[in-house]
Amino acid sequence: MKDDPKDLDQLLKETFTNEFRSGYVNAKGVTMTDLYPNIADSIENLKIWDDDVWVCSFPKSGTTWTQEMVWCISHNLDFKGAEVNLTTRFPFLESSARVDNAALIEKFPELANHEFVHDSVKFVEDLPRPRFIKTHLPFQLLPRDLREGRTQAKIVYVCRNPKDVCISFYHHTKHFAFRGDFEQFCRLFLGDKVPYCPFWNHIFGFWNKRNDSSYNILFLKYEDMKSDLISVIQKTAKFLKNAKLFSEELNQLLDHLSFENMKKNPAVNHKSMFEFTKQYLGASGEAEFIRRGQVNQWKTVMSPNILAQFDEWISKNLKTSDFSFESPVKPNIQYIEQFHNSR
Ligand code: A3P
């Protein structure tokens, strides 16, 4: 049964806040935190350079993995340089909209110059060129010059199956902002209330522009990275540098980007960010950013009821576009029932 948007607004308010994030706004149809309007104008007017490289995605779609691939290819596999934290090499444009920095500094004055508490748009503005920039903003909220195709800047977009995105997003946010259960998170996700939703608007915004000659967009899928990372690397190298990686370099990069190596690499596994949220935002538990890294996790996690709602929502939205994910795999209902019964 479909939720009433008003009920979902209430649910969002009750479950998805913390001391430093009070609520949400609707920005051009997109759910954003109520801190986003503070930086919306400076994002809209951000100067874009032709040599900018952007990684854009809906959260939890393999952004970090894609950023590391893009950065390493662009820097001729400078693994020494890649020891610098990814958040410095490839910062997150709108990270200032996640928590109220002023309130945080008021409570913890020692954070005044902390790398996670800066003005993120200014930080991006001042980056040395060529800049490498991450954003989760959907197409309609991108800086004006990028959105209007007035630049040669490159955009690498990565998407992932929404069921796995939803699971990954739930695990991510339950660490520091979301206090509800998984079923409630799914309802918010399907009702377009989770930050950066609507999900399909995000994907289609970039998908529909990928062949438009006013833009330089490379459109990737997490599932393809999992099944054939070599092809994705070569495609990305061609897009970024009109180059190809040869076997020794390719093997080094594959090794660097493997799930196991990224999971233990402090420059990309965001451990320091999670420690920060634990210390200052009251987060609890042992969360991991690079968590499972699997395709089709939903088969063992989503109840038949939630799955049916996702399937209906997916097929309804895919009918409106020529976009498709990998052919859907039928859920193993017996396995799911066993999983839920054994908890
Ligand atoms: P899970 O939570 O499903 O494990 P983002 O960077 O957009 O927030 O996406 C995070 C997701 O990408 C997490 O998914 C994470 O484990 C996965 N991921 C990160 N690095 C990966 C890698 N090298 N291989 C496979 N998945 C990876």
The number of E-state strands comes to 6
Amount of beta strand: 5-15%
Roughly what is the average pLDDT, rounded to an integer?
90
Q: Mind describing the biggest β-sheet? A: 4 strands, parallel
* Range of helix content: 40-55%
Question: What key phrases describe this protein's structure?
Answer:
343 residues, alpha/beta, four-stranded parallel β-sheet, two-stranded antiparallel ribbon, 18 helices, 6 strands, 46% helix, globular, disordered C terminus, binds adenosine-3'-5'-diphosphate
Provide a descriptive summary of the structure in words.
The protein is α/β, with parallel strands linked by helices and 343 residues long. Helix content is 46%, strand content 8%. It has helices spanning 5-15, 36-44, 63-74, 86-89, 101-107, 120-125, 144-147, 162-174, 182-190, 199-207, 222-227, 229-241, 247-256, 259-264, 271-280, 298-301, 304-318, 333-341, and strands at residues 24-27, 30-33, 53-57, 132-135, 154-159, 216-221. The strands form 2 sheets. A 4-stranded parallel β-sheet has the order 4-3-5-6, sandwiched between helices. A two-stranded antiparallel sheet has the order 1-2. A hairpin with a 2-residue loop joins β1 (24-27) and β2 (30-33). The protein is globular. The two termini are 25 Å apart. Residues 327-343 have low confidence and may be disordered. Bound molecules: adenosine-3'-5'-diphosphate. Adenosine-3'-5'-diphosphate (A3P) binds next to α3, α8 and α14.
